[in-house]
Write a structure and sequence with these properties.
A hairpin with a 5-residue loop joins strand 3 and strand 4. By secondary structure, the chain is of the alpha/beta class. 49% of the residues lie in helices and 15% in strands. The strands form two sheets. The protein has a five-stranded parallel sheet. Strands 3-4-5 form a three-stranded antiparallel sheet, covered by helices on one side. The longest helix is centred in the C-terminal third of the chain and has 17 residues. Bound molecules: cytidine-5'-diphosphate (2 copies). One cytidine-5'-diphosphate binds next to helix 1, helix 7 and helix 9. The site of one cytidine-5'-diphosphate has 16 residues, from helix 2, helix 4 and helix 8. It comes from Lyngbya confervoides BDU141951. One of its GO terms (molecular function) is kinase activity. Its main location: cytoplasm. Belongs to the pantothenate synthetase family.
Amino acid sequence: DARKPILAIDGPAGAGKSTVTRLCAQRLGLLYLDTGAMYRAVTWQVLQSQIPPEDEVAVAQILPTLDLKLCTDSQAQLRVYIQGCDVTEVIRTAAVTAHVSTIAAQPAVRSALVKQQQRVGQGGGVAAEGRDIGTHVFPDAQLKIFLTATVEERARRRMQDLIKQGETQISLETLRQQIAERDRKDSSRAIAPLMQAPDAIPILTDGRSIDQVCDLIVQHYQAINDC
Ligand code: CDP
Ligand code: CDP
């Protein structure tokens, strides 16, 4: 149902936003919108085009021809396309992660992607996650959640994800530093920095399972729906 309330989930890297938002969207019958994937896709295209990520003018020039699309496949997994080409996996590489906060701080990038996100959410019915959903993209969202976890816990989660993917070269301390650095960049940028909206409900996820966090969010959503 397109008129269902919007669920906005923000928070730092590794808080569990993607995992939890996708599951909540499935349970609540909402369209899942991963805005981080969109910033990653732009970053991938910039690197692919051999544009220096700091070159704002050159980055802005590729935006009109980007043709970025998000789709959900038959297993309810998100797939990301640029010019019809599936970039779902390549946007998760370390090279993209290292440059995404630089790209995401650029005004032209943010204005293009936010417009696209707002079009998707026009009629309601979306569960969107990112850094600025409750503060800028959908400031009137009926339910806003700010998902957090300590940086140590987030580094441990990232480490487990990497080990599962067969990547064991990186140390926990390096991961912790990378996450802290991205938090710093995302929270200190001039436009739409990562912050909790005044009307967001904070959920600290340390020591909570994915299911427990989802249950909590679904309860909040059903409560606003009953009003
Ligand atoms: O999954 P992970 O937490 O690593 O990050 P992500 O959600 O995929 O987002 C990647 C990057 O995109 C973030 O570090 C931000 O720099 C940027 N981002 C943003 O600026 N605004 C959003 N709404 C979502 C992501
Ligand atoms: O999107 P974001 O970067 O906020 O986090 P994510 O990529 O969804 O989640 C990072 C990892 O934490 C995943 O491996 C989840 O399974 C795990 N996790 C979680 O998301 N929530 C918990 N309460 C516990 C673990």
